[in-house]
Fold:
Amino acid sequence: MNMLRILAGIIPHGRQQAALFFLMLFSAVSLFGYEETSAGKLLKYGIIIVFWMNWLIAIISNKAHKISLPVTVLLLYTLVITIGSFSYNSNYTDRMLESSYYRILVSQSFVPHLFPLVILLLPNYNFRDDFRYILKLSIFLALIFICIYPFAFIHMINYSWEYNVGGSEWGEEGTYGDFIKNSTLNISSIVCPIIVLFWYKYISKPQWWIFLIVHLMELLLLIFTARRGGIAISLLSFFLVFGLYYLNKNNISKLRVLLLLTLLIVIGYIFYVNTSESFFINLANRSMEDTRSVVIRNFWKDMDTHDILYGRGWFGMYYDSTYMKWRMSIEAGYLALILRGGIIYLILYSFVLIQSAYWGIFSSNNILVKSLGLCIVRHLISLIPFGWPSISIGYMLIWIGVYICLTPKFRRMDDKMIYRLFFK
Structure:
């Protein structure tokens, strides 16, 4: 691969590509923990301002168009939560402002929830160029990931930490929280979007194998750092990718698939048995550890009926009596949605995504729309262990997927039409 050609390919053309490019930069700032420095914070601050200026200009200049009733209600309720977060929930907002406006502008509890507004722009979205651009960005990220991976892996296995450090809070130096946050140099922030693995019909085999290798390499990091939720979602992703491949491959031998699966299981088992006291030791130690029940119980204890129905706004917090402090984060993604906008927001959010996934998976004639539907399903499942909405290309693709899955003209296209229109 010509590196100069790859670099030239990620130069954005147009507002849509610029938005994707800025999301890539925003994630990349986390690499090596650079986001914790003053320069890193300033860079993130600048990136997010340019990102939203780009979208606001596009929204203002865009012509109005029809969107479905559930999507309309979700967008209106999102606006209500946003207004409320800066008015009747000002006590939570004031806590955010105690440090700086920076925290609001780059807040993962606020900014991603405005991403559904991208649906307002999509009729004028240049999919013909931008799916190719996502592919170019993914190739660039994959190559950077592979180059940095050996250093991150060595740093991870030699990182100094221990379980249950007495008198220490989560994330302090030497604790497990510190280990999972800093040991891998935050290399996962530049992993290419999972959706590119579904595009095996549209991209070259070398490209597809590079993407597969990257996600397998990330899975090894998740295993060593004992990220149980991340491992489950990663394995689910592989299952969905190969499941879609199998269902759309008419001439594939069922016996061949069965033998391949058996071989993979045997290899995985042998690898586990021989490394259970080394590579899998952290996962084995945490396999039965319950870190959620107490937190979830404290969450419900602090929420009254009004809060459960309507939430506490984008900057809402709950009091965790175990840690004896106010927390804005809660591990379960569905509870995080309730904290932000209540049961009402959770129902609207889930309904729009479930409806989109259903139409995309069961009423489409091409791999692209089905893959977007499956990525939406993956996101809904990921909300169980964590799965927060995030400032990332992957989460932006969820809402691009919602629009495409709900648009009949895209669902009616076959794979040849999709390839000619978006990937050729």
